[in-house]
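Researcher: Going back to the complex we discussed earlier. I've cleaned up the inputs and rechecked each line, so this should be the final set. Can you rerun the prediction on the complete assembly and write out the structure?
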Amino acid sequence: MALRPAALASLCLSLLLGGCTTTAVTVEATFPERPVVEQLPLEVAVVFDEAFQSYTLSESIPQRGDWEIDLGAAQVALFRAMLPALFSAVTERDVLAPEPEDSTADLLLRPQLQDMQFSIPYQTRSNFFEVWLKYEIELYERDGQALVARYPLTGYGRTRDGFLDSAQVAIEQAAVTALRDAGAFFAIEFPRNQDSLEAARVQAQQRQAEKARAEAEAEAQAEAAAEEAADNGGEDATADVPTDAPADAPQSLREETP
Amino acid sequence: MKTFRCTRGLSLLALALALGGCVSATIEEVRTAPALLKAPQEGSIVILGRRHNNGYETESNFVDCVGKSLRSSAVLPEQAFIDSLYPWFEPRTAPLDTADLPALLANEAVAKRIEGLGVRYMIWVDGATNTTDQAGSMTCTISPGGGGCFGFVTWARDSSYEATVWDLETQQTLGRISSDANGTSYMPAMIVPVPIIARVQAQACSGLADQLETFLSGPVTENAG
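Model: Rerun complete. Updated structure for the full complex:
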């Protein structure tokens, strides 16, 4: 009899804590190794930065607790399976930076997950767990600075609410379907856009050349101005500039002042 | 006492099986080609579920059921086929009509992969099983002295599927078979719930598989394909 109040209290506590549970989902998936796609004569270095590799979505659903969906490893696995079929060579990088001298990569490719959303049957009054992914694939020149193009990429997946399946399994399956969907779209559409990619590269190279020319011109102008100032300053300096010039005077003038 | 409980349990199980809910099924076939050009060979059939629709998607277990119920030749597993042709048979990228086949098969790599798998007939299954109505209630109680359920629950389910058979060689639709089944399940409970389940989806599956069997073992044009 003494146990009864304790059992009742435990039951009440578990009911109260029911809404505070966290549903943790780690998406684990293997993707088809060699997609049936045309291989492009391009070598890329793919950048999986830290945020991409460890992406976890945390969301709270009223009356259904907190949800944590770890997608990082699965999305890296998708790109690792897909990119070698699309490009003639693929190397991996952790950060976006200029390629080393000995690298043969033509482009740097950085996938960025911009948004991830999911829904459960309780929210949509449907029979489906759903996952939406929104990526942007950034392409850079070898210097890691000149942005050539941005490819928007979306993925959608859903799983029917199974009587015997847990919500974790259903969300994981929906996420895998969404990843496959995004990968399929990229694998089919990217090779079709080679002309626009080439045009974008030419534009990026032109922009880079213009920038370099502008910088060179600005530098030349600055040098000319400095020389002129030095010539003029040299004459005036003996007359006007005191030897104990203020500390915040321009460095170049101070150095070049006789 | 133990013997009594065991006997009672077995009786209830037998009763539930005997009283399996009633299912009514309708099968229809439309043949758009007079005959197959070639009899299906081992592994030359793949059955795929449609999953691009907004409100529903064909259940994988139904597709598996139809594949396993076909006796004429071994059917290539759905997921193995989809994986080996990734990314061309995902919900967003799969061909919706035979009109999409020329463009798909013009891709040399895709055509080669399908040829390598030996697939000649592609059967698309489109449809779903839904609960259309439910009523009643049941209460279950557990106490230190024992437990039990009391009440009565009933629900109706409706299965509606259509299979479309494509010939990849001629890139034509050979025919369509539809299978509809519906039935009502009951679960009365007097201490122990006794489910009387109408196996609606299973009935639709066996009906569709039987008709596909007849369809695929139909007349074959000689000296062809």
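Model: Worth noting: Residues 14-19, 237-258 of chain A have pLDDT under 50 and may be disordered.
Researcher: Good, that matches what I expected from the previous run.
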